[in-house]
Structure formats: C-alpha cells, structure tokens
Amino acid sequence: MKTPTLTLLLVLLITPAVAEERLPILDVHLHAVPADHLGPPPRTICPPMPSPAWDPARPYSELFDSLAKEPPCPDPVWSPMTDEEILCVP
Predict the structure, then answer these.
(1) Where do the DSSP E strands lie in 1-90?
(2) How many CB atoms are located within 10 Å of the residue 86 CB?
(3) Do the domain assignments include residue 67?
(4) Residue 41 lies in a domain
(5) Cα-Cα-Cα-Cα dihedral sign, residues 11, 17, 22, 27
(6) How many domains does the chain divide into?
(7) Residue 34 has what pLDDT?
(8) Within-domain flag for 50
(9) pLDDT tens column, 33-83
(10) Distance (Å, whole) CA 2 – CA 77
(11) What is the pLDDT, as a whole number, of residue 81?
C-alpha cells in the first residue's frame, strides 16, 4: 500500500514542474562606455550577428573591425556618433 501511494504522490509533485511553460531568457544589459570606445564611430552590427569564416593568419580584430564598418546585412544597427547620443541628451 505504501508503494502505490508514494508513487502517486511523486507523480503529483513532479507533474506541475514538467508541465510548466518555459519562458525565454532575455539578456538585456548596458555597456557604459564612450561612443568611441571601440574606435571611431559609427560602428554597426547585423542582427542576428553573422558567424563569418576567420582566417587564423590574420588577427580576429581585423575581421571584427571590417564587419563593424562594412556590415554584410541589408539593415544594420548603427552606433551613436557622440556620447550625448548615448545618454539620450536632447
């Protein structure tokens, strides 16, 4: 009698956790750096970020910089030009 009761209790306790909908994790954060932190603005990024082939004979920073200045996507997101634009100061 104890085994069926214990099994039923375990099933009832585990079921809500398994049936619960898993929501996506959103990574929203802010980098507090000046507009020219990574070099002269503007810089850009393509959403989603492409994963281009990298030639190990060249520094990775060259590839990253070329993607930031010449985006391989039709609608890139451009960085602010000034620190004031980052602060949203009118």
Answers:
(1) 44-45, 77-78
(2) 18
(3) yes
(4) yes
(5) negative
(6) 1
(7) 92
(8) yes
(9) 899 998 899 989 888 877 778 888 989 888 888 888 888 889 999 989 999
(10) 62
(11) 92
Confidence (pLDDT) at 17: 56
Q: What is the pTM of this model?
A: 0.53
- Domain range for 77: 34-90
Copy the structure tokens of residue 53.
């082939």
Look-up of token digits 């099933």: 11
| pLDDT greater at residue 13 or residue 81 | 81
Q: How far apart are CA 16 and CA 60, in angstroms?
A: 47
In a domain, 7, yes or no: no
Place of tokens 């809500």: 16
Report the distance separating Cα 42 and Cα 15, nearest Å: 52
Q: Is 49 helix (H, G, I), strand (E, B) or coil?
A: coil
Q: Which two tokens stand for residue 36?
A: 């020219």
